[in-house]
Design brief:
The protein has 104 residues and is mostly helical. The protein is built from four helices and no strands.
Length: 104
Amino acid sequence: MTCGEIKCKKEWHRRKCAEWNRKNREYFKGNYLRNKILAADKENKKGTTGQDRIPRTRFRLGLPWQEIQETMGLKQLVIIEYIIQVLMRRFQEVIKVQPLVNTG
């Protein structure tokens, strides 16, 4: 309950949304991946060449994306990119937690 002031209502709403988001993280992960696959598929259907277009990627890993896509398919390529994103985020979180040690 709130006192009825707009400021109190907004804070209550913010807290309830944050709580719901914490409890439903899996919903957002699945929703994000599903939307990304649908967007890549939709973008691919716009192409006039008949070939699958490689979706844009934020990662410059030097991987042969064209060959991976030809072998596995567009949807699988999007899933691989998502897995890379999750792994990189987790790796960065671990690195942030570790203390720096000067050995020299």
